[in-house]
Amino acid sequence: MGNLWHMSEPTVYPEDLPDTNTVVRATAAGGPEVFESAQTPLPEPGPGQLLVTTAAAGVNFIETYQRSGVYPVDYPFVPGTEAAGRILAIGEGVEGYSLGQRVTTCEAATGTYASHFLVDAAKAVAVPDDITDEQAAALPLQGATAHYLINSTYRVSPGQTVLTHAGAGGVGQILTQLLKAKGARVITTTSTEQKAQIAQDAGADHVLGYENFAEEVLQITNGEGVAVVYDGVGKDTFAGSLKSLAVRGMLVLFGGASGQVPPFDLQELNKAGGLFVTRPALHWYLRNAEERTWRYTELFSALTNGDLTLNIGATYPLAEAGRAHEDLESRRTTGKLLLTP
Questions:
Q1: pLDDT value of residue 1
Q2: CB neighbours of 261 closer than 8 A, spacing ≥ 6?
Q3: What's the pTM value of the predicted model, to 2 decimals?
């Protein structure tokens, strides 16, 4: 770490510079029991990077796939890309940031299950003073996903009727709130009465079960169907989502919680009313600083003006990341899960 002290290299707060980084890492593919706490060298920011002291890190399903070996990674592996904290060191060539400033990120950081993490400065976002650390860590991935879905993939207009799935999930709750702020009518689906209440609390106008949801959507819309379906469930809901659409409606398939949709005959879209289907992903909608700033500015504003409330389901000490994964995989919690050092 000696080269941190030269004027041409990153600058740091000497009194804040720890000797090591506390991490939680998976030692091999397996269940939550493969996690261990460890001390590793403090990461050094390269050119264009920030070293951030973690205030809170988000827990996401992709990390359970990496830990378990469903998604191949090199072990030992420190999960996490979503976190918020204060800048401890600034790499060469970085402008516009200062030591101690709060930042957040949803997809650009590495190893955020840790007391410190690195992120490319171009993909970090400054956190306003009126946003808490917990909000800043809980918002990015799910908030940015909801924002691009309803503002870019299919831009929803006031008065339109929209169908979303998994209305009690993290993205689902944010989608509903942002859609209601736009003046849309929201129909959503859930799997239990408890989850139905969560979706109603988020503002959904109609909450349906998954069985025969397409027929119920058509009944609610007097046979017309909805302008757009936001479907993160995939295989189990795909056919019903198409059936729920109005003529020239769009199915936005942004996930596959129930599995991937099998090969599909595009001629069926013509038969059903000249329909559209798209398969977006978040990184295609965070392609430059302007787009990133736009999305986060609107999301932060929604938090401060009351249009959006985040449901933080549980917060765990970093050392209990395994328990967080157990709870996430068993669906024992609702809302966003966070880790704090």
A1: 46
A2: 234, 235, 238, 253
A3: 0.91
Residues paired with residue 35 on neighbouring β-strands, in sequence order: 26
How far are the Cα atoms of 171, 277, 278 from residue 167, in angstroms, in the given order? 8, 21, 20
Tens-place pLDDT, residues 53-100: 999 999 998 999 999 998 999 999 999 999 999 999 999 999 999 999
Same domain, 174 and 134: no
Q: Cα separation of 275 and 251, whole Å?
A: 8
* Distance, CA of 68 to CA of 10 (rounded, Å): 36
Estimate to the nearest angstrom the gap between the alpha carbon of 222 and the chain centroid: 34
CATH number at residue 272: 3.40.50.720
Q: Are 179 and 150 in contact (CB under 8 A)?
A: yes
CA separation for the pair 207, 210 (Å, rounded): 10
Residue 250: helix, strand or coil by DSSP?
A: strand
Residues 176 and 263 in one domain: yes
Three-state DSSP class for residue 161: strand
Q: Say if residue 155 is in the same domain as residue 189.
A: yes
Q: Is residue 119 domain-shared with residue 150, that is, in the same domain?
A: no
Q: Under DSSP, is residue 186 helix (H, G, I), strand (E, B) or coil?
A: strand
Cβ neighbour number for residue 3 with a 10 Å cutoff: 9
CA–CA separation, 132 and 154 (whole Å): 30
Task: Let me know whether 104 and 209 are in one domain.
Answer: no
pLDDT tens column, 316-333: 999 999 999 999 988 777
Helices 193-201, 170-181: axis angle to 10 degrees equals 30
Give the chain's mean pLDDT.
93
Is residue 129 helix, strand or coil?
coil
Nearest Cα residue to 112 out of 85, 83, 71, 146: 83
Pair (150, 127) in one structural domain: no
Tell me the pLDDT tens digit for each residue of 281-324: 999 999 999 999 999 999 999 999 999 999 999 999 999 999 99
Amino acid at 78: V
Domain region containing 198: 146-283
CA distance 130 to 7: 33
